[in-house]
Description:
This protein is an alpha/beta fold. Helix content is 15%, strand content 37%. It has five domains: 22-322, Glycosidases (TIM Barrel), CATH 3.20.20; 326-411, Immunoglobulins (Immunoglobulin-like, Sandwich), CATH 2.60.40; 425-553, Jelly Rolls, CATH 2.60.120; 556-689, Jelly Rolls, CATH 2.60.120.260; 693-729, no CATH class. The strands form ten sheets. The chain has an eight-stranded parallel beta barrel with strand order 1-2-3-4-5-6-7-8. Strands 19, 21, 22, 24, 25, 26 and 28 form a seven-stranded mixed beta sheet that branches. α7 runs parallel beside α8.
Amino acid sequence: MLVCAFSLCAAQAQLSSNPYKFLGNITTSYNVDAGGGVPAYWKLWNQITCENESKWASVEGTRGTFNWGCDNAFNYAKQRKFTYKFHALVWGAQYPNWLSSLSPQERFAALTNWYDKVRAKYTTLPMIDVVNEAVGNHQAGNPMMKETLGGGGKTGYDWLIKAFEMAYERWPDAILIYNDYNSIRWDVDNYITLVQTLRDAGAPIDAYGNQSHELSDISVNELSSVLKKQQDALQMPMFITELDIDLADDSKQKAQYQKILPLMWEAPYCAGVTLWGYVYGRTWVNASGLYKDGQERPAMTWIKEYMETDAAKNAVGPLPGAKKEASIYIRPASMKVAKGDVLPIKVRARLATKTIEKVELYVNNALVATMTEEPYIAEYMAQKSGWMNTKAVVTATDGSTYERYGRFNVLNSTTKREPYNGEPAAVPGTIQVGEYDKGASGVTYNSATRNTNTVTKDGQWMEYTVDVQEEGSYYMEVEIASSKTTGMFHLAEYSFDNLDYLTKYTDVPNTGSSSTYQTLRCPLTQPLTAGRHVLTLMVDKGGFSIKSLTFKPTPVIALPGMLEIEDYDQCSDGIDIVSGNDGLVLGNTSNGEWLEYIIDVKEAGKYSYEATVSSAVTGSKLSLVLIDSDGREKSLGSVSVPKTGSLDTYEVKTGPIRNNLKEGQQRLRISVTSGNCNVDKVKFILTEGNGINEIGSESSDAAIYNLLGLPVREGARGVMIVNGRKVLRK
């Protein structure tokens, strides 16, 4: 695990001595120093990006095997005390080949694991290209990555919002960047729309990156106009991330750098410039190199001269030292609201090294609220239609201020948002799918109808305001009907602090017809807090019918007692709960599948099991693992499933539990280590109690004796007799 601090205060031999912005570059053929007579990296550049070494395909080309070639550049930057950018977490081009063979559920798990492995390796990162090249069809893998991260959803860009939320959760102090190409010449409007939507939705995006590969013949007027257009719309820091001028003619290359580099560098919203390679013939385009045969080309000579000018040295920037002090994101409860309705808006504000004194929220330059305590939530009455501009100003106790901008859209509709029946639907309870919240299209629903017989459409969604009666784990039963197997849905919640996927992506089976309903069980991936929630049912792939959603508490299984296999809290992808043995069973098992259960051990001690199982083959096996409240795992042994003749013929397999069970609530995982078996239930039998209860179980006025039967003082510790039972007093 690597932790480091980066700074721009490096050796003065580097080209940039400006404290507000860096002049960086990339690795050359997987090396930091280029060699061949070219000066050492640190003598030229004070920021480094790996050209390929930190891309997912390079790191995890073989699933589960991680090659951290990016360590070289990371450690070089750390040693030389300049900044580093991780490039890139999500990219629809250079992802591992094995990813495309997985289901959407499996891909999301793999992508989450990728984020977690990077976080474990690099606990601190100064800058991250969170998503690379997602505009339109810039990369062939974008549709797959979009599906992997939850699709377009309510905003059309939910998958990108999720990518940034996952990054912010792991690196809150990193500068989180969206990066793309053709953003200055040919895809300007699409690029602005994408970044603007992320910002307006309250995603934790801190800056936008212009790759700038396409500028070998751009005019000063065109470049100036486009950069201004971007900044006027986005109003956040900008990076030039991959600048190269692919011209073999020395004089033309120099002239183009003279035109465009000062314009970029001296823009007050520019936080840094990264050139994409500097050795002729050793970049992705040959003629962009600034050194040829070990000698600097005229463009390089001019760049060195320019960086010595007062204009270059004194240009201001938005992120001094390439560090992020303020994380400020404006998240409206919805990006659209009906005229006359009230819109809650939260300012997510965090300072890295300072203390917040107050947060002010403005709408169309009018002060809406001054807030001094978290959560920074205000309400705005939407009185006229059109786009409303928001601004949050965060003031620190030292008087410094930080700003963030955004927008939301007031629709020319007077249909206010409210629960379908006037009051939130109760959870636990059943909601008819057509009873989504009242309100305008785009606010509470999209492409939806209250007729439950209507077949769903791709990208359809409906929102339901619910009142969770009691905090805890829940699962959702969904009544669906379909004549095909291509449908998919998931449940989400757009909270003020995250975009939570409350269920995994659920595949819709062929039930026989569009009017033959079947109930699917969907465990919620996290507990629900008590109180009001707005749940969004997302139709990822339509073509099926939905009748109802029923929310039930996840059973807590008391031991000793019976564990029914269908009462799981969480499970791996691919689990099939099917009819069998006069009830429900785990069927069609494959190696690696698992289910987890919430158990409450009422009596501590030794246990045995009775597992009702079936198999048509020999060698099927299950493992039992106990997980305590701290996440520590303890093996309880394995179950060798006998060959019963067929999957429809069940037998009871008995055996001992390897370790004693302690009292209290824990988790139990049942894993399939060798498949081709069915599992119906597992009974846990107390074979030998230890007779010791947990501390606090005795009454305060009970007489206390030691194991010899003699009375002891109140403060005595150890195993005592209280009310005729052994009690461990700590």
